[in-house]
Amino acid sequence: MNKEQTIEELKNIVQPYIQNQEAFDILTEDTDFINDLKINSANLVDVILDIEEKYDIVIDNEAMERMVNVKAALEIIATKLSEKN
Amino acid sequence: MTNQEIIAKLPYSKPFLFVDEILQINENGVEGTYYFDEHLDFYKGHFKDNPVTPGVILTEVMAQIGLVCLGIFLLDYSFNSTTSIALTLSEIEFLKPVFPKEKVIVISEKVYFRFGKLKCKVIMKNENGENVCTGTIAGIMVSKSEIT
């Protein structure tokens, strides 16, 4: 998994749900979905379902609760992809 | 849970209860009805001397039947008075007017129910079987104890 490429893919996934364009424009691994991008918790569910579809993985409740920022999302995607293979 | 038990658990009362009966319900969807009594208060003002059901009320009918009734069924006995309900999305097309004394049927099909969020495709039909509204509605249903 290429990290830069995955971040770009994540940006495409979250873009429809962001409420803070400035934070989105300077998105890094440390960007928080709720506090920085202002994605509300209902839309965060859609972000997670879109991630599941994009990478063909299943995200459980425990992973959902950890997925608060870009870094955690990258880790969870990497872990779930490695479990698959 | 019986259909009557589901209606009894709805967190609404008159004048904001918009479910009369549930025709069928299962884990994939729900069908229910509501009759628009001509004496409903909003007809006095929408519009002056020309009562037509407001779009926001049609949306509410679709949400109460299509989303909240189904959510109560899916949560089963974990649904109680401490469960928080919030509408988070409604994208509805209004195709035909609904007048006083019309009975509508709402048909809702679950898209997903994950992490406390229920999203449904919802259609409202009039007694002639014509679609009067179609769209997508989503909401969150969580126990207050789960909110941190």
Secondary structure elements and pairings:
The complex is a heterodimer of chains A (85) and B (148).
Chain A: H1 3-14, H2 21-25, H3 41-55, H4 61-66, H5 70-84
Chain B: H1 3-9, E1 21-26, E2 29-35, H2 55-75, E3 83-94, E4 103-114, E5 117-125, E6 131-143
Antiparallel strand pairs in B: 1-2, 2-4, 3-6, 4-5, 5-6
Report on this structure.
The complex is a heterodimer of chains A (85) and B (148). With 85 residues, chain A is an all-alpha fold. Chain A has a single domain (3-84), classed as Orthogonal Bundle (Non-ribosomal Peptide Synthetase Peptidyl Carrier Protein, Chain A). Helices cover 62% and strands 0% of the residues of chain A. The model of chain A has no long low-confidence stretch (mean pLDDT 95). Chain B is α+β, with helices and mostly antiparallel strands and 148 residues long. Chain B has a single domain (3-146), classed as Roll (Thiol Ester Dehydrase, Chain A). Chain B is built from 2 helices and 6 strands; from the N terminus they run αββαββββ. Chain B has helices at residues 3-9, 55-75; strands at residues 21-26, 29-35, 83-94, 103-114, 117-125, 131-143. Chain B has a 6-stranded antiparallel sheet with strand order 1-2-4-5-6-3, covered by helices on one side. Chain B is globular and about 45 Å long. The chains are: A mainly alpha (85), B alpha+beta (148). The interface between A and B is small, with 10 and 11 residues. Chain A: InterPro entries: ACP-like_sf (IPR036736), PP-bd_ACP (IPR009081). Chain A: This is Acyl carrier protein. Chain A: Residues 1-81 form the Carrier domain.
